[in-house]
Amino acid sequence: GGELFIELGYDRLDDRFLPTKGMYSQLKYTSSRESLGADLDFDQIEFSIYGNHTMGRHNILFGGVFNTTLDDDIPIYGIYTGGGFLNMSGYEQNSLLGANFGMVLAGYRYEVAQSGFLPGYVGTTLEYGNAAAKRKDIFSDGRVNGSVYFAYGTPLGPVYLGIGWSEDRSAVYFLRFGSVFGANSLGRR
Prior knowledge:
Blueprint: E1 3-11, E2 22-32, E3 42-55, E4 58-69, E5 80-82, E6 96-98, E7 100-113, E8 120-132, H1 137-140, E9 143-154, E10 157-166, E11 169-177
Antiparallel strand pairs: 1-2, 2-3, 3-4, 4-7, 5-6, 7-8, 8-9, 9-10, 10-11
């Protein structure tokens, strides 16, 4: 590939790993050009937004992703993927594929242990979206899914252990270490 891009980001989360308040947003325009070594000329727009609000031990998470390809023909490296924790949690990582990807989510997390070496949380999410060849099919042919999980904040980063579910598949189990917020985790290609 050969791409030029411009990216705008806004990050006011109080913690990259287990945030309790703030917002994260990213907007990116990518122009892939044959003159730069790409297989095909194509353009893509990616947008994501996530927010957190805490009241005592209760935390609310909300967010969404909308990634779209502006051209009809793209090479395989330009395809968006979905699946995995907080990115269509009811599906295996990278199991949803398409030239376009979008999802919305709402989540709740409860702080079980407020102090100590390993603060613990239990949470759940409800997510809706899909990957599709056509932009209009992302939400019109969307899939309901979500997760139930335990999270622990460790000195090396958070550990998430849980189960994802969807309306058309059996359960997906996950164990995840590290950040779930940011360009390399949520709304990734």
